[in-house]
Design a protein that fits this description.
The protein contains 15 helices and 13 strands. With 464 residues, it is an alpha/beta fold.
């Protein structure tokens, strides 16, 4: 990390503001080679985090913009190194010329995520906070923003740190008694170990239980829109998106392939999958579409099962097909909403699939044409994905790496508890406790392999 890096930290599109960032030794001096302060003082002599007005120069020394510059010295900067920023007008040509000048002045192009990676390596962020930076950049809902911001400010780190420290205290007590038998230290009791293990197991179980919602908030909920041909699936997709994404006709079987889009419904980011109508068909192309529809349903966390609400239900074959569709959706997917479509037409569906006493799913009647019922659909989706017990925003797991580390720690503690109850000696039990500590250390990045770090930061964009 001894090299000076530079990058554009804003998109290369015309905008009001464009920002160039430098980090590493000599950041202010390098910036001085392309920046001339109006007060005549070098940026290297400026106070930390104070904006300085001046001119931006290209590599030939020609003025190309009037800008603001600032410097932050180590360790009081985002990366923990000396940094400098140039706030320009957001003309891509201006920013490109300035970057050329910075490279000529001794900086090298930054790799994707390198600024945040340096912040992690310099101890300014732990790994969960670094991942939260990427989550915040990609957030598509207010809840996702709050979750990422909470993680960035350390909510998850504090939760994990509490579990980590309690296990460290347990090990420290055991080794203190073992190594200093003549000192006045409270004896190590098996009951104390059992209680500590139970507390750690309960805490990790509660932490792992947050993963599903955390994953849904950051990655979206896979949601299959299924139904018989002409039930209104593509019309609903278009209504939710607010534009004509899928082709809609009165001809059954128009949709031959899955169409995927992202949309916020009921406060949840849904990865909507419009599917081909589920029916038996001799058309080989439509049959492939039906197979993909079933695959989409099998991989969905939420199914919107559409049925034509204007159908009087007099066709027994269609009723049997709808019943088979419903049973398949309920079998394959944990969360389902029954959507009766075409509410703008006279409604003829008065019978229900559900026997008296049977637990019925949410049922929504809507019209994709008029928008009636879309708000009720959002409310039904929100009820299926409750916010949970509350607590500190962001204190949840949001990706598979975090969940796997927590799962490994939990399995280690459960192994320790099993060994203790089986009469294994405390020193052998504590070997599993050390395994749990190692897994928690990987979660926050106290101990993590270089290839894992590289993979995490590869999802970042340049300049972040």
């Amino acid at each position: 990390m001894s090299e000076l890096i530079a990058a554009m930290s804003t998109p290369a599109v015309p905008a009001a503001i464009g920002v160039l960032r430098l980090s590493g030794p000599g950041a202010a001096e390098c910036a001085d080679r392309v920046f001339r302060a109006a007060n005549g003082r070098p940026l290297a002599e400026a106070e930390d985090r104070r904006l300085v007005y001046g001119s931006l120069l290209d590599r030939e020394g020609h003025v190309i913009d009037r800008v603001l510059a600032t410097v932050s010295r180590a360790p009081h900067s985002y990366t923990g190194e000396d940094t400098a920023e140039l706030q320009c007008h957001g003309a891509p040509a201006v920013l490109a010329l300035a970057l050329e000048a910075l490279y000529a002045a001794g900086a090298r192009p930054a790799r994707p995520g390198e600024f945040t990676q340096r912040a992690f390596l310099n101890g300014k962020l732990d790994l969960t906070q670094a991942e939260a930076v990427a989550d915040l950049l990609e957030a598509e809902t207010p809840q996702a923003v709050r979750t990422a911001a909470g993680q960035l400010t350390g909510a998850l780190s504090r939760r994990v740190e509490g579990l980590y420290n309690s296990l460290v205290d347990l090990l420290a007590h055991f080794h203190a008694v073992l190594d200093y038998p003549d000192e006045d230290i409270d004896p190590f009791r098996a009951q104390e170990l059992e209680e500590s293990l139970e507390t750690g197991i309960r805490g990790l179980e509660e932490l792992l239980a947050t993963y599903e919602r955390g994953r849904f908030l950051t990655q979206g909920v896979p949601c299959a829109i299924v139904g018989l041909p002409n039930a209104g699936k593509s019309s609903l997709l278009n209504a939710l998106l607010g534009y004509q994404r899928a082709i809609v006709t009165d001809i059954p079987g128009t949709t031959r392939d899955t169409v995927e889009e992202r949309c916020v419904v009921g406060g949840m980011l849904l990865r909507l999958i419009d599917t081909a109508g589920l029916r038996d068909t001799d058309d080989p192309v439509e049959r492939l579409g039906v197979e993909r529809s079933r695959a989409a349903l099998a991989g969905a966390e939420l199914a919107l099962v559409l049925m034509d609400g204007s159908d009087a239900g007099e066709d027994p074959d269609r009723l049997l097909s709808e019943l088979a569709l419903w049973e398949e959706a309920a079998r394959r997917c944990r969360r389902v909403v029954l959507v009766l479509t075409k509410a703008d037409l006279p409604q003829g569906r008065n019978r229900s699939f559900f026997a008296p006493g049977e637990e019925a799913p949410p049922v929504v009647r809507l019209s994709a044409k008029t928008g009636e019922g879309l708000e009720a659909l959002g409310a039904a989706v929100a009820r299926l994905f409750p916010k949970g017990s509350g607590g500190e925003a962001g204190a949840m797991l949001t990706n598979a790496r975090q969940a796997q580390a927590a799962k490994t720690a939990l399995e280690a503690l459960r192994g320790a508890e099993t060994g203790l109850l089986a009469g294994v000696t405390p020193d052998a039990v504590l070997t599993d406790v050390e395994g749990a500590l190692d897994a928690l250390a990987q979660l926050t990045g106290r101990s993590v392999r270089e290839d894992v770090v590289a993979r995490i930061f590869s999802r970042f964009c340049v300049g972040k």
